[in-house]
Amino acid sequence: MAIPTRLHQLLGGQLRSARDGFFAMRTFIGAPSLQEGRHFNDVVRSAGVWFRQMEEFIEGDSGARSLRGQLRVDLFRLGRMMEDLSGTARAIVEEMLWYRVDTDEFLRKMANSSCESCDSLAAAWKQSRSMPSGSSECVVRAKKANRQVFRFFREGERLVLGHPEVLKRLKIRAVYRHFSDAAHRADEAADIIESFVVQGI
């Protein structure tokens, strides 16, 4: 069964919103400030709106209600993961401001890889109907970017825990953890999009 066009559009909007949020977060990480934090909040404000619209559509539209079984579950999971990605980006910005965390090499690397992953997920979804092979390539790029986030997380964590200023470094580690969580969510989303492409949905 094909995904209703409106639902495909709503999920596409949510994927773009998550991507835009990660790009704004990367800008914030480049120069953490209250002003950049406010700009980030303005960008990610729409993320929750997309998710609520998707939920309402699935529950209210007769075509979406007819979606059964695993497809319905996977569509909802994908929407939930995108909402979680946006929430993770919010947590990164909030904790960096709250703890007054200075940016470092690993935060910049994780931000860049996370942006690449989110951009690839949005592209994969956009191409999922018109160019499935291109969509699969985007999924592979997203998964590769996620593996980079995991690697940078481990390298940064090793540096943090071996540093004499452990308390300061534990605060940075908390922010690193969010990137790792985001990469897990993006990886799961990539798997779902890939399954839709393989099924020709």
Task: Give me some keywords for this one.
201 residues, mainly alpha, Methane Monooxygenase Hydroxylase, Chain G, domain 1, elongated
Q: Report the top-level CATH class.
A: Mainly Alpha
What is the CATH superfamily?
A: Phosphate transport system protein phou homolog 2, domain 2
The domain count comes to 1
Q: Biggest sheet: strands, sense, closure?
A: none
Quickly count the helices.
7
What does this structure look like?
It is a single chain. This protein is an all-alpha fold. The protein has one domain: Phosphate transport system protein phou homolog 2, domain 2 (Methane Monooxygenase Hydroxylase, Chain G, domain 1, Up-down Bundle), CATH 1.20.58. It is built from 7 helices and no strands. The longest helix is centred in the last third of the chain and has 34 residues.
